[in-house]
């Protein structure tokens, strides 16, 4: 079985199969394409590019332009493509769920309902913006570039983001409805009922 390697480094190798890019270019592509499924900062990109180059997985050349700083452009090597293919063959590692908003909602009896409503409404604003971004990416970036071999797979990933946001917004609508209904109800005791416990048997 192939050993696991840094997913951050492999993401950069994958992006370099599109075309040679500088570190700045890679950061821009991350934000405009895979940012909703895999986020990398410039503080992560440049050290990873340095390691990839040292391992012979990417090649680097310096481009000089009059009146502008030198530009270091990276391209994936044959060895890099082989390692990327090896990494792609390994089943994905399980995700560790962490959602602070849901955690705070879980303990919602300890704060006034309007605070919970504001938290969910803020999530709605953020996720509506993300949904619009995914739809725009599919329409303007993917559908208009069918010449790339990975375009059908980019579309699948973008569609996942759309459906995920739509599900979150549906949940938020139901949750806001329930929270607003509870505004008119007397506050329940925060003490657990005798003989009841939040745990599965």
Protein topology:
Blueprint: H1 7-16, E1 21-22, H2 23-34, H3 42-54, E2 58-63, E3 71-76, H4 78-88, H5 100-106, H6 113-142, H7 151-182
Antiparallel strand pairs: 1-3, 2-3
Helix pairs in contact: 1-3, 1-4, 2-3, 6-7
How does this model look, in words?
By secondary structure, this protein is mainly α. The chain folds into two domains: 7-88, Arc Repressor Mutant, subunit A (Orthogonal Bundle); 100-182. Helix content is 57%, strand content 7%. It is built from seven helices and three strands. A hairpin with a 7-residue loop joins strand 2 and strand 3. Helix 1 (7-16) packs across helix 3 (42-54) and helix 1 (7-16) crosses helix 4. The longest helix is centred in the last third of the chain and has 32 residues, at 151-182. The mean pLDDT is 86.
First-last Cα distance: 38 Å
Q: Which regions are unreliable across 5 or more consecutive residues at pLDDT < 50?
A: none
User: What is the overall shape?
Assistant: elongated
Into which percent range does the helicity of residues fall?
Answer: 55-70%
Structural class: mainly alpha
Summary, kept brief:
This protein is mainly alpha-helical. The protein contains 7 helices and 3 strands.
Key phrases:
mainly alpha; 201 residues; three-stranded antiparallel beta sheet; 7 helices; Arc Repressor Mutant, subunit A
